[in-house]
Amino acid sequence: MRVFLTGATGFIGSRILPELLAAGHEVVGLTRSDTGAAALLAAGAEVHRGSLEDPERLAAGAANADAVIHTAFDHDFSNFLANCEKDRRVIAALGAVLKGSNRPLVITSGTGMGTPPEGGLAREDVLNLEHPNPRTISERAGQDLLDTGVNVSVLRLPQVHDTVRQGLISPYIGIARQKGVVAYVGEGANRWPAAHVLDTAKLYVSAMERGDPGARYHAVAEEGISARAIAETVAAGLSLPLISLKREEAAAHFGWFAMFASLDMPASSVRTRELLGWQPIGPDLLNDLRAMDYSLAA
Q1: What confidence tier does 130 reach under pLDDT thresholds 50, 70, 90?
Q2: Does residue 132 come out as left (phi exceeding 0), alpha (psi in the -120 to 50 range) or beta?
Q3: Alpha-carbon gap, residue 65 to 57, rounded angstroms
Q4: Assessment of whether the complete model's pTM goes beyond 0.90
């Protein structure tokens, strides 16, 4: 298939690209820069110029594709709500040109959207639009497309990691460096799910090739690592003291990150593994954090 890949030069997209090529697909990658275009050409992909600020330009890329994988997202979490609204506009534009066909569109969300209202493990068969994470906007956009007959599925991400980046933990490390301490809230018992970036890339390809309309898949290799275990590992890596904050102290310490710092977000991928045969094999989160070069992450 001819696949239009947004975020093709990004952390996850740049790993999806070689997986697609190895599976025999043609790839048209989105980029906004000359550097990105050169990287795509060197990797064996075609180049489509555009940005998230121009949804119609992205739609033009999707119009000539047999399938679309949408991973591009503005990861400025200090402006998270506005960036989720931007994602909604992009998803709507991509879906509009796929309507009336069976061409698959795989969009991206977070595992938190699968958390039942009563709590517990996030599951693929749950869509919790009341979850406090604004990424619900992306899932609602996907549901709107599904209701009009677009072949859309959702891949929900945990903390996707290697030894360089680790999802929300990367800005967490930055805050710790700035504050001079590594903090967690309360007992640090809240949990975050995780998966290695290479395992995640393989799952995107499987979801595109084998997924069903309306399906939701979880890229979860580890159901939940405690905030305290993450903080202890980061504190050792940074050689900084470890402290516990009271819940009411979190906002002053973490700023925009406070909304995430105490969330308990364990997630399951049982259904994903059953449906797509996905078997993650990459290193776990804490081992990648231990192997990280914290001097380069400054």
Answers
A1: confident
A2: alpha
A3: 14
A4: yes
